Amino acid sequence: MPRWSEVAQALYGAWRLACLDPRGMAYFAQDDRAALRSFFAALLILPIYLFILLGRLTQEEMAQGLAFRILLVELIGYIASWAAFPLAMLWITRLLRREALWAEFVTVYNWAQLLEVGFALATLTLVEFGIVPRLGIDWFVRAITALYEWFIAKTVLRIAGTPAAMIVLIALVINESFPRITAALH
After folding, report:
1. How far is 116 from 100, CA to CA, in rounded Å?
2. For 69-186, where are the E strands, in sequence order?
3. Which domain does 84 fall in, by range?
4. How many domains does the chain have?
């Protein structure tokens, strides 16, 4: 488990990268243990994920006693989704001859998820209060997130824009697959 000072420092680094400042990299620990500790971000996001999930349960699902099963399937899917992309990146970084940068990439990517979730929640809140129109907001959030992840891939792995875009596409496919898989298992 990381110290809170490491979490704060990583979040500041993630923020700097969100501002398209490559100097944000200086705020991340860059070793295998840091990559492992970065999965703490999944624990920080989990309550938000569960809150949203519970809000989506229907009265019928609750009445039929399906809530526990749905939550269990979703929790397993959540854990698997946090492992899937880093595992895919192990292969991709080998392919790109950037294997030495895998741990650093995983570290930055995982901590960046906190900012992405925060951005999505803030945007959703603005929509719910009628400050921002709902039309197209999902695409806007995805576009900003894709740009952010592209910059992270390009910066951390020191690669050109096209391979970085392919990494973003792979992340999107993986991250969009798990909710569909878990929904099919309900």
Report:
1. 25
2. none
3. 4-185
4. 1
Residue-wise pLDDT for 88-136, tens only, equals 999 999 999 999 999 999 999 999 999 999 999 999 899 989 998 989 8
Rounded CA separation 90/24 (Å): 23
Q: Whole-model pTM?
A: 0.92
List, in sequence order, every beta strand (DSSP E) within 75-165: none
Q: Which residues of 160-171 are buried (b: 16+ CB within 10 A; e: fewer)?
A: eeebbbebbebb
Are residues 172 and 141 in contact, defined by beta-carbon separation less than 8 angstroms? no
Can you tell me the distance from the alpha carbon of 62 to that of 47, in angstroms, rounded to the nearest whole number?
A: 19
Report which DSSP code applies to 131: S
- Taking a C-beta distance cutoff of 8 angstroms, is the pair 40, 113 a contact? no
pLDDT band at 68 (very low <50, low <70, confident <90, very high): confident
CA distance 17 to 85: 20
Six-digit token pair at 96?
A: 């790109």
